[in-house]
Design brief:
The complex is a heterodimer of chains A (about 270) and B (about 650). By secondary structure, chain A is of the alpha/beta class. Chain A is built from ten helices and twelve strands. In chain A, the strands form three sheets. A six-stranded mixed sheet of chain A has the order 8-9-10-5-11-12, sandwiched between helices. Chain B is globular, with a radius of gyration of 27 Å. A five-stranded parallel sheet of chain B has the order 4-3-5-6-7, sandwiched between helices. Chain B has a five-stranded mixed sheet with strand order 12-13-14-15-16. In chain B, strands 24-25-26-28-27 form a five-stranded mixed sheet, with helices on both faces. With about 650 residues, chain B is α/β, with parallel strands linked by helices. Classes of the chains: A alpha/beta (about 270), B alpha/beta (about 650). Chains A and B meet through α5 and α7 of A and loops of B.
Chain lengths: ~270, ~650
């Protein structure tokens, strides 16, 4: 039941490509606390990969390792066939990894449009001063980037709030704006930290639809952390289950659902 | 039978008008749509290119003359082109309501035996797929927005732009066929088929010929002096006859530009950006906008509030008169100009009405306050009365003769006739050909001479020649004394008071009229709060003496206004009860669309009605109520019956 290697075809007929990212024996410690212990798994191109587990299992830490925010003490991160040296988060972003946050991290005073435009930062080549003067190349570049951003605004159906300051939006829409900003970076790998947290059923359905559409339309590989089991099982192709910093399961939703360790972890069997 | 068309032979069909517009206004915008944050636009010449490519694509798919092509989606240029492309192929476009559920779509597609469907997006495609097993005649679907449909089986599904590309590729081969089909079309070719929403029974397919549409569009465009360079915002359902006449008929006849909003939610922003010169909205849209303005004014600073109210009072006094071109004093004019600079102008700009030259509302009665508010701002808002069967226009108000209580004079080319029963009949070049596959209904509605029954009762005012609609014909009756009884006419007048949410008037076959009244909890509750009136329940508030006094004053005011009309003076309300509970759809008293169900109310509250007529001052009653979760309970109440002053009918008409 271990992670499959190489290409495969999902139940709904999507072709999954080669390994995009591979985590090899990752161990992450904060002082004496072991947040992640010797975990290995991989993410294939085009797949939707979920990381689940009870509270405190180390899911967000794992996402932070992928995004370059935490640096594991042991283990290697391989991305697009090469071992990734220790990098700053902005360098990781330049490599094509974008993310959303568990607690929304948008610029509240700025409009939706401006927030999403910040997602294009890694694609802008002209300098700050050229952009401030807005002449020649900088102008052309902004127009091109705006086009990309407008396509995403259209895609996520947030045209009506384009000019609204983010601070005035309800929670569910802020989440969508955050997804828009991450998409604006045109990532190879999109990391979503609890995209459905705090949403009602309808908002969850909308968000699920968007996640599937992003994957389908742009071919974006997605790794997500989520607590809502229904959502995880419906959306993802493969699931990694973590508990107390260890990996206790890895496989298709069906395999994971029937894994005794996973059932124990969720139903609360005592740990020896 | 029909008199010959006044349009010249090369301006008889929509495709002909398109060709004419290309020649006349080739580089002027025909369509705009906001997409990706920018207004994208298409000139008449470009429009013809798009339409032709699509028409050739449809030919390639195997569209035959006389086929029905269903079109489902929101207002987008592509879907308007689809209708015109279908007409090019000699097929009949059938636009459907985009919020129709799958079963409704199934009924219509089956009824018109549509072989092809052009749908906007996945949502609409899914609805059709859901019911396609019931539709053996359905062959192929075309969709606009590819999103989410990558994995669909494409053997019976084609993307809109792929179809256009296929059409362009096949131009050499199919263009002669397209041209010969165009040459075979004339004023009697079917232009469009529109399904009426059908409040009673199944929807009916109204067949409109090119002559119906083109003649009506020509007449109505000339009536309001519409011109090339006018702008409209197309935001009302494409399946509604009004949208078809405004956005295709009149747009093609006149050559003005049709603007499509980015999405339903951005409608108001888009309206402001476009600033249409010709605008239509149902009364409730105007109502909501007015409420929003008032609420936002309450949040404004004191000076701004003073400024607003001061100038609005002035506008109310002289605005409508200035708009109607009447004599207004110099000082008043000057002050109105100042008000325009400081209040009316900015307000109109906010509402998106800065450039409106011709505005219409129709469909329901509009409150005089609301109507006057917009007119006092200098917006030329008028009323019209229409039906799908008439290609919209039956009557409309000419500039300078606008009132909130009439629907205007007969539109050009329309003849009116009032039957003895009071029902309004009309005959015009716009009168529909038939109900599709329903000869029986056609015969019921349209007689051999082409007169069509509207189902509405009304009369023509002698002093002005304007038509006034009083009620649905089936609800109109006679009182015991033989006076006309039109409950809805009185109910509407009562409901224009914010304190009154709902009213039901009785009196058919009786010696006088009486009424049930529901207070509006929001408005009356607000009033009670401001006046320190304590109440613990709806029932208590509804029975409060001061509330009854207020309602009585309203009823008497309505009586006075009803009495002005000799014909309807018999409808004055003599006695009324303020009901102890709100009429509710859950209790079957209202329909789901909040219309009063008279029969059921009459049965359920027979004890109250008896008390209204036997003269007793109070009545005790017990009413069963259904809670939202389906449980039943009952409320007991002791209700006071009030007598309202009635006014003796005027013997001589006012003025």
């Amino acid at each position: 039941m271990n992670a499959m290697t190489g290409n495969y075809t999902t139940a709904d007929g999507r072709q999954i490509g080669d390994t995009l990212m591979e985590m090899k024996n990752i161990t992450l410690r904060f002082g004496g606390v072991v947040a992640i212990k010797d975990i290995s798994f991989d993410i294939h191109e085009g797949e939707i990969r979920a990381i689940i587990g009870p509270n405190g299992a180390g899911k967000s830490s794992m996402l932070n390792v992928i995004s370059g925010f935490y640096h594991p003490q042991e283990g290697e991160v391989w991305f697009r066939g090469a071992k990734r040296p220790t990098m700053k988060p902005y360098q990781v972003a330049q490599q094509g990894i974008a993310r959303t946050f568990q607690n929304i991290a948008l610029f509240n005073g700025m409009s939706v449009l401006d927030n999403v435009m910040t997602g294009r930062l890694t694609h802008m080549k002209t300098g700050m001063f050229a952009q401030a003067l807005w002449k020649g190349k900088a102008e052309k570049e902004e127009v091109e980037n705006r086009e990309v951003v407008e396509k995403i605004i259209d895609f996520l159906e947030i045209q009506a709030i384009r000019k609204t300051p983010v601070g005035r939006l309800p929670y569910g829409l802020k989440k969508r704006v955050e997804l828009a900003r991450a998409l604006a970076a045109e990532p190879k790998l999109l990391l979503l930290d609890e995209p459905m947290a705090g949403m009602n059923v309808e908002e969850k359905e909308d968000m699920s639809r968007f996640i599937l559409d992003v994957n389908d339309e742009f071919g974006t590989t997605i790794a997500l952390i989520e607590h809502d089991m229904g959502v995880v099982m419906d959306l993802s192709d493969r699931v990694v289950v973590m508990d107390y910093g260890r990996k206790i399961g890895d496989g298709t939703p069906d395999e994971v659902r029937n894994n005794q360790d996973v059932i124990d972890a969720y139903l609360g069997v005592s740990h020896d | 039978m029909a008199p010959p068309s006044t349009a010249t032979a090369d301006q008889q069909t929509i495709p002909q008008l398109l060709a004419r517009n290309v020649a006349r206004y080739g580089d002027k915008p025909a369509y705009r749509e906001k997409e990706f944050g920018i207004w994208q636009s298409w000139t008449w010449a470009e429009t013809q290119g798009e339409v032709e490519a699509l028409a050739l694509g449809l030919l390639k798919l195997g569209v035959k003359e006389g086929d029905h092509i269903a079109i489902i989606g929101r207002n987008r240029p592509y879907l308007y082109w689809s209708m015109v492309a279908a007409q090019h192929c000699g097929a009949v476009p059938v636009p459907l309501y985009q919020d129709a559920v799958a079963e409704e779509i199934a009924y219509v597609l089956d009824h018109c035996a549509a072989r092809f469907v052009i749908a906007q997006d996945q949502e609409q495609v899914d609805k059709v797929i859901e019911v396609q097993e019931q539709l053996p005649g359905l062959e192929h679907m075309v969709y606009l927005d590819p999103r989410g449909m990558r994995k669909y089986d494409h053997s019976k599904l084609t993307r809109f732009d792929a179809l256009q590309a296929a059409g362009r590729d096949a131009q050499a081969e199919l263009k002669p066929e397209l041209e010969s089909r165009l040459a075979r079309q004339g004023e009697n070719t079917t232009c469009v088929m529109l399904y009426t929403s059908g409040t009673t029974g199944r929807p009916k397919g109204v067949v409109l010929s090119n002559r119906n549409v083109v003649e009506t569009s020509k007449n109505s465009s000339e009536f309001d002096e519409l011109r090339p360079g006018d702008e409209i915002l197309a935001y009302l359902p494409m399946a509604w006859v009004g949208d078809f006449i405004f956005s295709i008929g009149q747009a093609y006849w006149t050559g003005f530009c049709v603007n499509c909003p980015e999405s339903a939610e951005t409608m108001h922003t888009d309206l402001r950006e476009i600033g249409p010169t010709y605008y239509f909205a149902p009364p409730r849209v105007f109502e909501t906008q007015l409420t929003n303005v008032m609420i936002r004014m309450e949040d404004a600073g004191r000076f701004k509030q003073w400024l607003f109210h001061h100038f609005m009072a002035h506008a109310k006094k002289v605005g409508p008169a200035i708009l109607d071109g009447e004599q207004v004093g110099f000082a008043d004019r000057l002050k109105y100009r100042l008000g325009d600079l400081m209040v009316y102008g900015p307000l109109k700009n906010t509402l998106g009405f800065s450039r409106v030259r011709v505005g219409y509302t129709a469909g329901e009665a509009i409150g005089p306050e609301i109507f006057d508010f917009y007119r006092s701002l200098g917006i030329n808002l008028k009323q019209l009365y229409g039906q799908t069967e008439a290609c919209v226009f039956i009557t409309q108000q000419p500039d300078g003769e606008v009132r909130s209580d009439t629907v205007g004079v007969a539109s050009p080319g329309v003849e009116l006739k009032i039957a003895d029963s009071g029902e309004v009949f009309y005959r015009s070049p716009g009168v529909f050909v038939e109900y599709f596959k329903n000869a029986e209904s056609t015969a019921d509605t349209k007689d051999g001479e082409g007169w069509v029954a509207t189902g509405d009762a009304g009369f023509i005012e002698e002093s002005s020649g304007h038509l006034r609609i009083i009620d649905r014909a089936k609800d109109v009756g006679k009182t015991a004394s033989g006076d006309l009884f039109a409950p809805k006419y009185v109910e509407n007048k009562l409901k224009f008071f914010p304190n009154i949410l709902e009213a039901v008037v009785f009196g058919n076959g009786r010696d006088r009229c009486t009424a049930f009244i529901n207070i509006d909890l929001a408005a009356v509750g607000n009033w009670a709060e401001r006046n320190n009136i304590a109440y613990s329940s709806y029932q208590e508030l509804a029975g409060h003496e001061r509330v009854l006094n207020t309602i009585q004053a309203h009823v008497e005011e309505v009586n006075a206004s009803v009495a002005e009309d000799p014909m309807l003076a018999g409808c004055q309300v003599h006695r009324f009860i303020v009901l102890h509970k709100q009429l509710d759809a859950d209790d079957g008293e209202l329909t789901r669309t909040q219309k009063v169900r008279r029969r059921i109310i009459e049965e359920k509250y027979s004890d109250l009605i008896a008390a209204l007529y036997d003269g007793s001052p109070r009545v005790s009653t017990e009413t069963e109520v259904t809670y939202e979760d389906g449980r039943k309970g009952s409320i007991k109440a002791d209700l006071e019956i009030r007598d309202a002053k009635v006014v003796a009918p005027m013997k001589v008409a006012a003025e």
